[in-house]
Amino acid sequence: MATNMREKGVFMYVSNMEDYGHLVDPDYFPTKYLHNDMWQMKANRKDWENRYISPEYWKALSPTELNEMPCPDVFWFPIFTPRFCKELVELANDNGGWSDGSNNDPRLAGGYENVPTVDIHMNQMDFEQEWLWILRHYVKPLAEKVFLGYDSDARAIMNFIVRYRPTEQSFLRPHHDSSTYTINVGLNRPLIDYEGGGARFIRYNCSVVNTRVGWSLMHPGRLTHYHEGLQTTKGTRYIMVSFVDP
Ligand SMILES: O=C(O)CCC(=O)C(=O)O
Ligand SMILES: [Fe+2]
Q: In CA terms, which of 67, 183, 200, 210 is 20 to 30 Å from 32?
C-alpha cells in the first residue's frame, strides 16, 4: 500500500515510531538455577539477546564486515556480553564438578581423555541443549561466513569450560581437536584476572594472547591447526570450548 500511495504522490507521515515495549512469555521461567535468565533464550529471545549477545555480534555477522584473523584461518569474533561470561563462570563454580585433569574421565564413553583439561561439561550444568541452540543460532552463521561453502550442522558433543591455574593445570600440550572447527571463548580478563595464557598455532608459529572477554576464536580442528594452550602464570584463566561438527 505504501508503494501505491507513494507512486500516487500521497504524502505519508509515519507516526508509530515509538517503542512501546514487547510482550514477555512468563510461562517458562525456571527458578532452580543460579542465573535463571541464562535459560530464557527460547521463551524470551529478545530480552535474552539484549542481555547476553554482544551488540558488536551483529556487525561481525554482516557480509560486508571484515573479520579479524589474528593467525592464518583463525578468526576472532565478538559474540557474548561480559555478563554472559561472568554468569557462565559463576554457574560453573557454583556447580563445582571440575574434572581432575587426568586421562581417566568417567564422563566420556571410552572413559579415557587423550588431552585432558580441568573442566566442566555443559551437560553437568544442565546447559547442554541451550548451548547447542546457541551454536545453531549464533555460531553457525559466523562459521559459514568465513569458511566459504561449508554447511555446518553445528553439532557438538564436547562443550566445556576449562580453567587454568599455575598451581593445577596451567597449560595444554600440542594437540588436534576432534572437530571440523573449534570455538574458544575468552571468559575473563587477561592482565587483570590472570596472566599468561592464550593459544598457539604451531604450524604458523602464531599465538593469540590477551584474548578478549566474550570474543571467540574459531579455527579448523584437525590437520592444519595443531595447537597448544599457553601457560597461565598467575590467577585463573577461564575459557569455553566447543568441538563443532566432530
Ligand atoms: O588454552 C587454549 O586457549 C586452548 C584450549 C584448547 O585447545 C582445547 O581446549 O582444546
Ligand atoms: Fe584444542
A: 183
Report whether 215 contacts 77 (CB < 8 A). Answer: yes
**0.85 surpassed by complex ipTM:** yes
Q: Which residues surround ligand 2, an ion (CB under 5 A)?
A: 177
What residues does 219 pair with on adjacent strands? 182
What would the pLDDT profile of 181-211 be if each residue is shown by its tens digit? 999 999 999 999 999 999 999 999 999 999 9
Can you read off the three cell numbers belonging to residue 168?
593445577
Tens of pLDDT, residue by residue over 88-112, are 999 999 999 999 888 888 888 888 8
Q: Which atom of ligand 1 is nearest to the CA of 227?
A: 7
Atom of ligand 1 minimally distant from the CA of 217: 3
Q: Is there a catalytic annotation at residue 173?
A: no
Higher pLDDT, 111 or 215: 215
Query: What domains can be seen in the chain, in order of their start residue?
Result: 53-244 (2.60.120.620)
Q: Residue 180, Cβ neighbours under 10 Å: how many? A: 18
- Nearest protein CA to atom 9 of ligand 1, as residue: 241
Beta strands in the chain (DSSP E): 68-71, 74-78, 119-121, 156-164, 172-175, 181-186, 194-196, 199-201, 206-208, 215-220, 227-229, 232-235, 237-244
